[in-house]
Amino acid sequence: MKRRVDRRLWWLLAGAAAVSLAWLGVTVGLIAVTLEPEARQRMLELLGDRWGFVLLMWLLGMAAIGWGLQRAFDVGVHPWRRLAEEAAVLLTADPPPTLRERGPADVRRVAHLFNELVRQRERWRREVDERVRAAARDIEQEKRRLAALMAELTQSVIVCNLDGRVLLYNNRARLQVRALSQAPQGLGGAELLGLGRSIYTVLDRAVLAHALDELRQRLRKGAAQPSTQFVTATRGGQLLRVQVAPVRLVEEEGRPRDTDPAAMAGFVLVLDNITREYEQAAQQQRLWANLTEAARRAVGNVRAAVEVLQLPDADAALRERLLAVIRDEVVALGDRLHEVAREGLADTTAHAPLEDMLGADVLAVLQRRLAEVPGVQIDVREPDPACWLRVESLGLAHALQRFVQRLAQDGGVERVALRLAPASGVGAAVRVTLELAWPTVHASAARCQGWVDSDAEGSAHGAVREVAQRHGGDAWVQDDPAQGQTCLRLLLPSAAPTASVEAQPAARVESRPEFYDFDLFRVSPAARAWDDVPLTELAYTVFDTETTGLNPSDGDEIIQIGATRIVNGRLLRHESFEQLVDPRRPIPRASIPIHGITPEMVRGQPDITQVLPAFHAFARDTVLVAHNAAFDMRFLQLKERLVGVSFDQPVLDTLLLSAVVHPEQPSHSLDEIAARFGIAVLGRHTALGDALVTAEVFLRLIPLLAQQGIVTLGQARQAAERTYYARLTY
């Protein structure tokens, strides 16, 4: 792209034109005043006849002046301005690049002196850095111990600030969240957990907000070790127990003491997937049921045989057969007991404590458990999103499953409806009614009430009424003639959210381990408008695409997407996204030497309808950054309607930002900018390689923008929009 002509040159040329015209007018006027009238008339007629020649000579003269001015600028102005722009990089780059000694002799001498000064500064800086490293060695050792401790923990631990931004996590948490999210196979980097990402992509916001409100209440009551926990269902059908503990504010010198005992800097989450425990308890329940049924049958047979043996007229053959029956039943029952012992039947008389669960999660758990009853269809009505219960979900699910089995086996019920409804009467404010409804024609209330009160065969958790009473409620069955149905109703305790407490300002924590960014404790971008947030406080997804060609509107397709993330001014290379895409069309031979992607490489890869949602999730809640972003964004936007996603976050372009900070540079290509900043270019023309180079360039541009007073996202976008390159379209 050619550099535009300096605007000042046009002003100088216009001034020269005005001066020359004025000089010509004054000269003609002075000559005319000294001539006789006849001579004056002849002179004017001569000028009238030769005006074209005069105009041509004037234009040639102006062109000569313009060329001379341009040459003067090229020699005396532009080299100095380019030198100033490149020298500004030396103030921010680490390590600083060497100024290119080019241009006139004076410019080369100044560049040489700059390089000498920079080398001297670097020597001093290395000495200071060495002293700092020596002084911080003990602190670094403590950081490593923390990282090692986190890596060795057998539990999944995540630390967040009050906005829900992830500040720290261990590898076990990353693996567990990946498993719970059920990301499509083969999609590189489709992670929900990462530094600076929102925990609400993993956990429901309402569930976590309720837990934090309860945590603040316990802090206000002066609990010595305040914590709370809840159980939630994930999108993949897993049960997750989450323990929540506060991160207390650290008092700092010069900072006013916070008088609110509930003030927190953030919170710690300990995740535990209890799905397997739930399934093991279900297995124990089935073993208990089988054992109970076998014991009941064996005892019945033995009892009948004993009653016959007690008859005086029983002959010897009959007695022998009955004794054989008793022996067989006792042996079979003993074998069954040994089998149950081998399979590890635990004590099922102890019941789990009540835990807070969102109403929708309770219904999801019950629906999955009741669906195990053959021949019965479960209809679930959507509950109030604000409905919370305090339940022991395992016992409740077992009792209701047993009840539905009786409905199906003895009542012929094939369809039941499950819903939550507000309770009425005394204590309604702290109660919720769980309703299970079926057509009255199959099983009436009078017939089913006995199953509710005492039908606990095969259940270690008791009958439905017993389970309800453990929850401090009750259970009953009643007919509803108006609806033609019968309902089992359980009165269960609600867990109403406590009064909301405003988020406290985040605390500044000095510790910054290499892989865990605690500085986010003091950042609250979610509470501010995008454009008002300083560039240094935003999270960015820096991305690049490789395509089959340069015309997205004419059918060219994406064949690779690569991205990395920047959080708090740090490039997180380990949090990256890289995925080949099957374009469903040929790759032109001419483009293969550029990006190195062959048709064989994309064959069998997921297409854009699978890759784009994964990339959209990776880039959620971040600002998009790309070089020549208009090109890449056009490819993404043309696929939004097809895929059903929208990239509506702000976008920054390093090409435009480079033109803002270095308007005198003749080129703003990625290679040229990288050379200007002394950035080593590796993996060029691969999507992830270009994204990493772009991220390095962007980090260098931020302090240069700040030198021009451009410190917020809105200011950067406005400055970029005013550049010449912003007019390019694709």
UniProtKB/TrEMBL annotation:
A Pfam family this chain is assigned to: RNase_T
Lineage: superkingdom: Bacteria
Record has Flavoprotein as a keyword: no
Any Gene Ontology CC annotation: cytosol
EC number(s) recorded for this UniProt protein: 2.7.7.7
Membrane-spanning intervals of the chain: 9-33, 53-73
Catalytic activity: DNA(n) + a 2'-deoxyribonucleoside 5'-triphosphate = DNA(n+1) + diphosphate
Coiled-coil region: 125-156
A GO MF term: 3'-5' exonuclease activity
Keywords for the protein's UniProt record, in alphabetical order: Coiled coil, Membrane, Nucleotidyltransferase, Transferase, Transmembrane, Transmembrane helix
The protein's role, per its UniProt record: DNA polymerase III is a complex, multichain enzyme responsible for most of the replicative synthesis in bacteria. The epsilon subunit contain the editing function and is a proofreading 3'-5' exonuclease.
Protein name: DNA-directed DNA polymerase
The encoding gene: polC
